[in-house]
Design a protein that fits this description.
With 278 residues, the chain is mostly beta strands. The protein is built from 3 helices and 17 strands. A hairpin with a 2-residue loop joins strand 10 and strand 11. It is globular and about 50 Å long. The termini are far apart. Bound molecules: copper (II) ion. Copper (II) ion binds next to loops.
């Protein structure tokens, strides 16, 4: 009897360990995972990673919404140059910053997963979400320099995807109806400007318009819905992936990036979408 209980306990412990490993690895096949922790207001995680496709996990251990944006610095620009320009004008990124996407916002205690393709070079990781005074977190310390090394001899390939979201000026298009489950979503920017995907699980009866009306900078939880990831700013012509778990219900997609000419957020120009998951 005792021996059987002992074996049972070992079996439970092992399956628990396996489920933790599966969670940490990102739960599906794909490129190797690097993990960053976001806090109010800093990032912890590797300062060096290899070029090519990478799964990026972001754990939100802060009290506010957070995201990670991978920005590549062109030749001749440094993280100090970036910080200087951001401090002088916190309302927008320096024009020369190259948007390479990353995991988008999740509420405290949750995790976002993106799969990004990085060229070798110097980067900064930033959070562009505003605090309650409208100051983006990057200006408050959420800025981490990153060195991306040459790709290994056999770099990881892009993962297989269940769905494609096409970004345009100014719309989201889903390739097919969304179904419930753990999904890998391919994002392609066919627009002339950078765009992002903020994925929101809407409260029963709420629309993405209600979510935008209820949203207050510096307040992580909204009665109208909950951000559950997506993909941060991606330059025109580029692609990336994100992962999310969908249950039946209504979801929204939003692009908050400012228009290059009007400076209004893209959702004002129509870049928002309500969709149902069955
Ligand atoms: Cu946009």
């Amino acid at each position: 009897m005792l021996a059987r209980m002992f074996i049972l306990c070992i079996a439970i412990a092992l399956s628990f360990a396996q489920s933790i490993t599966a969670f940490a690895a990102g739960s599906a096949a794909g490129p190797p995972t690097v993990t960053y922790t976001a806090r109010d207001f800093e990032f912890d995680g590797p300062e060096k990673i290899a070029a090519g496709w990478q799964t990026v996990a972001m754990l939100n251990r802060g009290k506010d919404l957070h995201q990670i944006q991978f920005l590549r610095l062109p030749e001749g620009k440094t993280a100090a140059d970036f910080q200087e320009e951001m401090t002088a004008d916190p309302t927008r990124l320096p024009r020369w910053a190259q948007r390479r996407s990353g995991p988008n916002s999740v509420v405290p205690g949750e995790r976002a997963l993106a799969i990004v393709n990085l060229e070798p070079g110097e980067y900064v990781l930033v959070c562009g979400i505003p605090d309650r005074h409208g100051v983006p977190h990057v200006v408050r310390g959420m800025l981490k320099p990153l060195h991306v090394e040459a790709a290994p001899p056999r770099p990881a390939e892009a993962p297989p995807a269940d769905q494609t979201i096409t970004l345009a000026d100014f719309s989201f298009e889903l390739a097919r109806p969304m179904t419930a489950g753990a999904r890998t979503i391919h994002v392609v920017n066919k627009g002339g400007q950078a765009h992002e995907v903020v994925l929101v699980k809407l409260a029963p009866g709420a629309s993405v318009e209600n979510f935008l009306d209820a949203f207050r900078p510096g307040v992580a939880f909204s009665p109208a819905g909950k951000p559950i990831g997506g993909l941060v700013g991606l330059d025109p012509g580029r692609e990336g992936f994100f992962r999310a778990d969908f249950s039946p219900g209504r979801y929204g997609l939003i692009c908050f990036l400012p228009d290059l000419t009007a400076r209004a957020p893209h959702f004002v120009r129509g870049m928002l979408l309500n969709f149902d998951v069955r």
